[in-house]
Amino acid sequence: MSTDTIQRPIGEIARTMVSGGRGILAADESVSTMNSRLEGAGVPPTVEQRRAYRAMLVTTPGLSAWISGIILSEDIFTASTGDGKPFPVACVEAGMLAGIKVDTGAKALAGAPDETVTEGLDGLRERLESYAAAGASFTKWRAVIKIGDGLPTPRAIAANAQALARYAALVQEAGLVPIVEPEVLMTGEHSLDRCAAVTETTLRSIFDELTAQGVALEGMVLKPNMVVPGDRCATSSSPAEVASATIRTLRRTVPVAVPGIAFLSGGQGVEMATTHLAEMNGLGPHPWELSFSFGRALVDLALKAWRGEPGLAGDGQQALAERARANAQARAA
Ligand code: 5MM
């Protein structure tokens, strides 16, 4: 299929995902990540609680005012909410697009100790067919780039960029929109400038590969980290410094054909992620929509409020709605 043929429908989906002042909820934690988040909140890590938690999020009244789409993990995408409705159907009926994480995780990269390459390409074409038939409009794949002594290596950046591009090409072939997520981790002592340099190199490599693989930039959404200092950096940076470093990095690397950039929160505090988003939007106008696809920064307070108690689902939903509204407002800054 030529790039021109597939461009229009996926372009419309991509624009819906990032426009209208709304953002994307990342509720696609793998089973192991979800279990540790549940345990952290004092909730038993069972299949039923993983399902009940996501059902609580997806059925939040009025969520579609601030959220355009929800990324689900495969175990949840194929499950049903409490009333027996498949999760993708529940999303769509509530006015939000359904998405699915299709990578199978970051695995040790040969010859590069301490670095990973994200896997999941085997059998992806067939899996995509079934996700599309079940109501998915978009997908997500996350590459993890670590900063450290001599890290990242060019090998790790190249391997992840190529995997992301091959993933994106397959997803567009299936008529779906790929979210391309390269996460430069904020774990470490590195400075803001170092994060900026690594993010710039990573994004440049990814867009080279996306072009090489024939990916239609109009039909994708980029989900990058913000440029922030490491969590153990001796020097802190102001929201204005973070915003200007992030925008400068994106302007150097992200083609204007990409309709939108939806940031991950990456372990920043809930309020800080929102502050940074507002600060960046305040520097506009930008050539792309500047949106959010937060996981923790949207759901942390909801999980704490819910605590696995069916009677507290309303409290959890109120906490999610509050963060979703605040981040949507940050886009209008
Ligand atoms: C919700 O977490 C997503 C899945 O992570 P694992 O596969 O490691 O469990 C993750 O990809 C998420 O979409 C991004 O990291 C953004 O989440 P944050 O919390 O950083 O905004």
Automatic annotation (TrEMBL):
Keyword set includes Chloroplast: no
Catalytic activity: beta-D-fructose 1,6-bisphosphate = D-glyceraldehyde 3-phosphate + dihydroxyacetone phosphate
Pathway noted in the entry: Carbohydrate degradation; glycolysis; D-glyceraldehyde 3-phosphate and glycerone phosphate from D-glucose: step 4/4
EC number(s) on file: 4.1.2.13
A GO biological process held by the record: glycolytic process
One Pfam assignment: Glycolytic
InterPro entries to which the protein is assigned, alphabetical: Aldolase_TIM (IPR013785), FBA_I (IPR000741)
GO molecular function: fructose-bisphosphate aldolase activity
Keywords: Glycolysis, Lyase
Family designation: Belongs to the class I fructose-bisphosphate aldolase family.
Entries under NCBIfam families matching the protein: FrucBisAld_I
Protein name as it appears in the record: Probable fructose-bisphosphate aldolase class 1
Species of the source: Candidatus Amunia macphersoniae
Species lineage: Bacteria, Bacillati, Candidatus Dormiibacterota, Candidatus Dormibacteria, Candidatus Aeolococcales
